[in-house]
User: Fold this.
Amino acid sequence: MLDDITRSAERDIGIKAYPRSISRIIGAIKSSDDFWEIVDISDEPLPLVAYVIERLVDKGFIELKNGKIVLREDLEGEVSQWHKCFECDGRGVIIDDFKKEFETFMEIQRERPSAKKEFDQGYVTPLTTFSRIAYADQKGDIRGKEVIILGDDDLVSLALALTHLASRVVLLDIDKRIVDFVSKSARSHGVDVEAHVFDLRNPLDERFLHQFDTFFTDPPETVTAFKAFIGRGLATLKGARNAGYFGITRRESSLNKWRELEKVLISDFGVVITDILHNFNVYVNWEYWDTTRAYDLSPSKTHPKTNWYKSALFRIETLEDFRIFNDPIEGDIYNDVESSTT
Ligand SMILES: [Fe+2]
Assistant:
């Protein structure tokens, strides 16, 4: 039965599935009856999870009861055993040293611009934003360093400026609302962010090339967009042994796609992956979620009750012969068969 669904998935929705993918989805259904949590727990791409649930409904193994996904037979599935540290929520860092800055940030971010679908926005929890800074600080990538953020609806630039740790904070974003919000908030709190409206589909110019020690970005997860955003990030760095941070999710990227993305890093850019932190980035359920493909595909059409969309935090480091990508980009770079939140 598993082999059958595994084969038809690739044919019907174009996503490479394995018997273990199906087993993980069944295991997740044993842990939760909520579609969004099942996607979260299984760590399989959302379109595949939706597809598998529908096939299991067709075969009579599952039923949908008031938006709940319920197993009718005791199928074998891989159930995850949790051993997560609740102190740090599995991130490995706590933000106690930034207590005051975090409180200020919480106050400021109440007025933040809402997530916009046209820019593929969707922001992380404030705790995630600060944990990212704590983690990068621990790695020596922040203190006294020049830092650039390429696309920042997570408001990392503002949080970073509040800590006064970096020697320079620069923000590029296509969305004028974000640029204005960060500039205004930074000014009113007496801290400095150089914020520019910039469409990252355009090549970076001298103002931003080879100027920084560390970059942060959050690329859309098509191979083309990923290459473009990471390539731009690398183009901002001064040289060898500089660092870059970004997320890659399991929600919209199968492991086959992960391998393609990792190949871009290692083969195309010649950088080294030093850290991968599972589910480090936790996203707030965005305002436009019920107009997304994810909602369309969801068999239950229920509201997410928990923050189900997460991504792994990647840290890369440049070596002496790393390469960049700074060519112009055209066309739709946001969508492929595995994406579902645009
Ligand atoms: Fe911990």
